[in-house]
Amino acid sequence: MPLPISNSRHVAVADGASERVVAISDLAASLGADALIRLHEDDFAALAGVGRDLVHFNLERTINRVGLAYALLPIRRPGRRRPGGPEELPVLDPTRFRTGLCTEIRQGVPVSAVTPELFAASLPTIRDAEALAAALVRRYRSLFPDLAPAEIVARGCAVTRLRLDET
């Protein structure tokens, strides 16, 4: 059974010392994009080491779509799911972002099947299957606290290829 997809309608944004909930579509439009890709702070910082082509990995599957423009934003505080309760929304920093066009999607790819060509276009910190497995566990452990690290990795990944706008 697939894992639930994160809230695709709303997100929290940092607003000075406070936070507010906004519609994802409104935030994306304000950044000149169709949708958002949320990156953990370390991953966002690693974008500085990436050229115009980026391969991004999500756990299991993604709702990203080929042909849409995405704003990539850093997560200030990750979201999480609580048993029996609603998802706690991640808090994003809308003052820092990159934009890019989605050119390819692959769903349900086993971590061991990710090719060197895909790793070569990934973040500098994710250049092999071991690093990808560690990144998936780091990113999704708090969102799915009932899954062991091996169970997270066994779910495979979604691959999103983007052509980033020049900075």
Tell me what you see in this structure.
This protein has helices at residues 24-30, 41-46, 116-120, 129-140, 149-154; strands at 10-15, 18-23, 35-40, 53-59, 69-77, 80-81, 87-88, 91-92, 98-109, 157-164. It is 22% helix and 36% strand. It is built from five helices and ten strands; from the N terminus they run E-E-H-E-H-E-E-E-E-E-E-H-H-H-E. With 167 residues, it is of the alpha+beta class. The strands form two sheets. Strands 1, 2, 3, 4, 5, 8, 9 and 10 form an eight-stranded mixed β-sheet that branches. It has a two-stranded antiparallel sheet with strand order 6-7. It has one domain. The mean pLDDT is 92.
Topology:
Elements: E1 10-15, E2 18-23, H1 24-30, E3 35-40, H2 41-46, E4 53-59, E5 69-77, E6 80-81, E7 87-88, E8 91-92, E9 98-109, H3 116-120, H4 129-140, H5 149-154, E10 157-164
Parallel strand pairs: 1-8, 3-5
Antiparallel strand pairs: 1-2, 4-10, 5-8, 5-9, 6-7, 9-10
Descriptors for this entry?
single chain; 167 residues; alpha+beta; eight-stranded mixed β-sheet; two-stranded antiparallel ribbon; 22% helix; globular
